[in-house]
Amino acid sequence: MAAPIQHEDLLKLKGFIDFVNTNPTVLNMPQLQFVKDFVEKFGGKVPDGDFKMPDTGKCPFGGDAGPKAKPAESSAADDSDKSDEDAYISEPESDVELDMEGVIEADVESAQPMGDSEKVATEEEIDQASDLRSQAAAAYSEQKFEEAISFYTKAIELNPGNALFYAKRGQAFLKLKKPNACIRDCDKALELNCDSAAAYKFRGRANRLLGKFEEAAKDLRQACKLDFDEEADEWLREVTPNAKKIEQHRIKQERKNAERKIKERQRAQNKARKEQAKSSAGGSFPGAGGFPGAGGFSGGGGFPGAGGGMPAGFDVGDLMSKMKDPEVAAAMQDILGNPANISKYVSNPKMFNLVKNFFPGGFPGGGAGFPAGDPTAGDADSEEAAFCDAEGKPANSSEPKAKKESSDFVDDGLD
To answer: Per the record, where are the segments of Gly residues compositional bias (predicted)?
Structure first.
């Protein structure tokens, strides 16, 4: 007959039994109580004593018994491969260890009478409310807190503008372990009187019962500031350690978030710089958009309409630096729009040097280059400074000019 459990499980069970044979006190561990009961059910006896884990650090049932060994430090190469973002993600958030003694479960929120906020009490109603307050105080002193709440509620209905009635009813709710009800009453009291020390005091205590230590410390500190009270001061000293731990933890997290944002911004900037460097290294202007209206050009592609690429040794970076000059940029845009317009800039030394250095074989895209030599060096109006194409012929005529006649020839009108 086949065994009811798998072979692998049988091997584990055998290993466990072998371990128990040599370390029987292990069955005194609380989590193995069911095994101890099984042994004793069949007349076995488990020796008394506490079990100590072996020094090997291995759990007898599999896994590690002790704390995990620290992983080997990563090599410098591995560290360099790991991004700052990964480091932030992998870093666990630290927990705050708080003293939660005295914290109770929050009471279920339920509606409680708050009175008519628009009502103006008469003198008679004010007197009646004062009597009810006295009855409520008497019931409270006798620890009849439900009865005290009832009296305060009636007083509130008669005089809903008295902040102290709400604060005192909140105090009674505290005694009934209803911190949320107390907080609602104290909120109303502070709405009517922002300087109610009693409201701050009881709301601070309610927050402490709910484990809201920072809020509790703030309220109790304000209560002592408005009207020092020994009980409020004692409650404040009770919540201060936890409140400080929470504050320090929050500051630490805010600092981490700020550092994370700085790292993200630096990564974005580095990425943008790399993209720009990559684009420049490829021999094209950023965005491959070129000059407006010209369609752009990229390394090896030449200007629109040009048959070939850039000249050998073309330095895009140097050209871009010269293009920062508004005059040169405007002239280049004009020429790219219509290469024939290059003739307008024959006397411009900036454009002459630009075309000479970057387009020695003529301006790409159909426009001819400037003539050899510096057109600005001589007489700009002389015939020798005429605009020529790359072969040295006049750019605007396919026929050579007629020979200039001598200046001493005079037409006398005779045949």
So the answer is: 284-293
Domain total of the chain: 3
CA distance 378 to 384: 9
Q: Which two tokens stand for residue 190?
A: 């502070």
pLDDT digits (tens, 9 = 90+) for 254-289: 999 999 999 999 999 999 999 888 887 754 444 334
**pLDDT, tens only, 343-395:** 778 788 877 777 777 666 555 544 555 555 555 444 444 434 444 444 444 44
Looking at the fold, whether 32 and 147 belong to one and the same domain comes out as no
To the question of pTM greater than 0.90 for the whole model, the response is: no
Domain final position from 246, 276, 306: 246
Other beta carbons less than 10 A from residue 348's beta carbon: 17
Together in a domain, 135 and 40: no
What b/e string do you get for 305-324 counting C-beta neighbours within 10 Å, with b at 16 or more?
ebeebbeeeeebeebeeebe
Between helices 163-175 and 123-141, what is the axis angle to 10°? Answer: 20
Is 194:226 a contact under the CB 8 Å cutoff? no
Q: 95 lies in a domain? A: no
Quote the DSSP letter at residue 310.
P
Phi, psi at residue 394, to the nearest 5°? -60, 135
Residue 284 belongs to some domain of the structure: no
Q: Residue 21 sits in which domain range? A: 1-52
Q: Is residue 392 part of a domain?
A: no
| Whole-angstrom distance, CA of residue 218 vs CA of residue 386 | 89
Domain boundary among 214, 246, 278: 246
Per cent of the chain over pLDDT 70 is 65
C-alpha to C-alpha distance for 206 and 327, rounded to whole angstroms: 75
